[in-house]
Design a protein that fits this description.
Elements: E1 3-10, H1 16-27, E2 33-38, H2 40-43, E3 52-54, H3 74-80, E4 88-93, E5 107-112, H4 117-120, H5 123-129, H6 134-153, E6 160-163, H7 166-176, E7 180-182, E8 202-205, H8 214-224, E9 228-231, H9 237-243, E10 248-252, H10 256-265, E11 268-271, H11 279-286, E12 291-294, H12 299-302, E13 309-312, H13 317-326, H14 334-341, H15 346-360
């Protein structure tokens, strides 16, 4: 069976979706990987030996730096990817590539991280966060109806949807009118393990995008006067740096070893955003560390409240402050946190996903 993998972008290092793609590549090592844009510097040695094939966008001058401004061209780039020679297409997508064309008789499985946030349910937040003038924001807003039409019209190209959580399963039904099965993403529980040392800081790790609401956490920890370490980079970095008080430290992007060190020793992992699933909180639990998270989305499926973490009910500094103040009154067992994370191992993902593929391609 001729297999192709398709991924939206390979541009930001090995984040959650890219680690899922790596597991898929291990299952189908001969499969080429089609993607809209590929930054070999950011991806580094992690993709060495992969057969990566890019869209025409890769050849545009400055495309890697300006990729966020190329979104009107994304549908065309997807339509021009040629996958007609494959029997099985597996798309790993949160936006575009689930809509690829392929041979009529081929099976297309979409592992869906979410219907595109900026198209379907976070449009205004994304537009308002753009550092551009009113005319540019108006132009972006004017393109959205056409993009939504294309996105929904193309979903019949997917034979089977696989959702990363029940939250995403509901969105797929709401926006695309399609059923799906849930297969949770893999968590590298061998990489994140408990250590004896404890250090006195709270931690955030992730891309600094608007929906991550890291500003909520910074405001809360400014008020509390407690140490908060933030690892990550993204379009919000400069704004967040300006908001940070003396107890909040933004470290920018860091390599795997430094991330592992900080996660294994933090007092708790902070998650102020609503995530579709959320691998980072499970990495923290795998390292025996509790999580303080906004109580919506995927964390409702991955955190056992009062046992492996605490949930705050409103996405505001006041609500987070109240929960962090309550945190010292609680006791969290490292092994209990790790045991919860072990429900989401890489081996479990590989077995479930391979079994699903086998069943739908018989």
């Amino acid at each position: 069976m001729r297999v192709a993998l398709v991924h939206d972008y390979l541009m930001q290092g090995m984040r959650g979706a890219e680690r899922v793609l790596a597991q898929m590549h291990d299952l189908y090592p001969q499969a080429p990987i089609y993607t809209l844009l590929f930054d070999p510097v950011k991806m580094g040695n992690t993709v060495e030996g992969w057969d990566i094939r890019t869209s025409f966008l890769q050849k545009l001058p400055g495309a890697l730096k300006l990729h966020r401004k190329l979104f009107p061209l994304m549908p065309l780039a997807v339509e021009l990817l040629d996958l007609r020679q494959y029997d099985l297409v597996i798309s790993s997508s949160s936006a575009w590539v689930k809509n690829v064309r392929h041979a009529p008789q081929a099976t297309h499985i979409c592992y869906c991280y979410s219907p595109a946030r900026f198209l379907w349910f976070w449009s205004e937040q994304y537009i308002n966060s753009m550092q551009t003038g009113l005319v540019a924001k108006w132009l972006v807003r004017a393109t959205l109806p056409g993009l939504r039409w294309w996105d929904k019209r193309s979903t019949p190209r997917v034979s089977h949807f696989v959702a990363i959580s029940r939250t995403v399963q509901q969105r797929i039904r709401q926006y695309f009118g399609r059923d799906s099965v849930v297969i949770y993403p893999p968590v590298d529980t061998e990489r994140f393990v408990p250590v004896a040392e404890d250090e006195d800081y709270f931690l955030i790790v992730g891309a600094l995008n608007p929906y991550k609401r890291v500003d909520v956490a910074i405001e809360a920890f400014n008020r509390l006067g407690l140490p908060l370490v933030i690892i990550g980079d993204g379009p919000e970095y400069e704004r967040l740096q300006a908001l940070a008080g003396p107890t909040v430290q933004l470290l920018g992007w860091r390599g795997d070893e430094e991330v592992e060190y900080h996660i294994a020793r933090c007092r708790a992992f902070i998650m102020p955003q609503e995530e579709d699933f959320g691998i980072a909180p499970l990495e923290a639990q795998s390292a025996g560390r509790p999580v303080i998270a906004y109580g919506a989305g995927g964390v409702l499926e991955t955190i056992v409240e009062n046992q492996t973490g605490l949930l705050f009910s409103e996405q505001t500094p006041d609500s987070l402050c109240a929960t962090v103040r309550h945190f010292p009154t609680m006791s969290f067992d490292k092994q209990q946190c790790r045991d919860n994370a072990l429900r989401f191992t890489t081996s479990r993902f590989r077995e479930e996903f391979a079994e699903f593929v086998e069943n739908v391609t018989k």
